[in-house]
Amino acid sequence: MYDSPPTIEQIRRAPKVLLHDHLDGGLRPSTVVELAGEHGYTGLPTGDSDALGRWFVEDRPRHDLVRYLAGFTHTLAVMQHADAIRRVATECVEDLADDGIVYAEVRFAPELHTEAGLALEEVVEATLAGFAEGSETAAARGRPIVVRALLTAMRSAARSLEIAELAVRYRDLGVAGFDVAGPEAGYPPTRHLDAFQLVNQENFHATLHAGEAFGLPSIWEALQWCNAERLGHGVRIVDDIVSEPDGAVRLGRLASYVRDRRVPLELCPTSNVHTGAAPSLAEHPVGLLRRLQFRVTLNTDNRLMSGVTLSSEMERCCAAFGWDWGDLAWLSINAMKSAFYPFDDRLALINGVIKPGFASLAAESAFRVSAPLA
Ligand SMILES: [Zn+2]
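# zinc ion complex -> structure
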């Protein structure tokens, strides 16, 4: 019996888990256009939503972080009012549920949504209201999904303690953790130690953008100074892994620590290719890290700017690395194990939804190939 590779249509039906997705990186192009009209934003490169969608994804030189980040100017410009934020959050959940995701943590930086006068709390509440509304709609359509928020502080700013306090304050209302994002070079995570100390002292959860474009010191600080539970990207951990000419692979102390401690890596391969952190998907370290059994999770980062869904990312990795249903189930279980969600609820999703869902899809694939031969 031979398994056929998972198709995009099948992967979309698989019960998947997403841990690293930015709210302001995942808008529908039509929503960007409509919100710009409603709120008088005139800076969009085009008012045609199809052309705008292409502008975000295609009309861009690859490996260009500056151009990649320019897209956020527009998405953030239309997310400065509570109704707009709520709509984006609602649609985000609907889109993730349509892609077959059963659990997601979606992050955003409240401090980037205050230009029109919103208070940080209003930003969080509008987002959580949108998540609740989107979850209801999705459940009514037979696509149940759990969505939690991660509050991101900007590395280059000085509001991380305030954002950490905000995250802790909303922990029972849908916020699952704290994150820091932004340029790594010149802004080490240790600038935000007080924020991480607060999170730790409150027995709360933190992940941290580290080891995306910048190397091992950033990962080391994230783990050993900030006590981050997961690494946002963390892909540069490969800089501490040496492949010998005879095929043997040697891990340095930090890479060993990350693997031994099962530190989850929130890998986002296509995003890394677009920002220049990896030359191509086929050369992306996710293949090696999966083979070495790091705690790999697969993520979208910015669905709009990268033109991806979690399903498309999985399909591309299957093509690039020969992954099968076993790999995709392993990634999904890894992600669920690493979620900032209570242990018994994680187990219930793993055993009640994820494992049976992947098992039946794998059986379907095997049947499709074997049936004509029988
Ligand atoms: Zn990110």
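# post-check
Strands lie at 16-22, 101-108, 146-154, 175-181, 207-210, 230-233, 241-243, 249-251, 265-267, 296-298.
The first strand starts at residue 16 and ends at 22.
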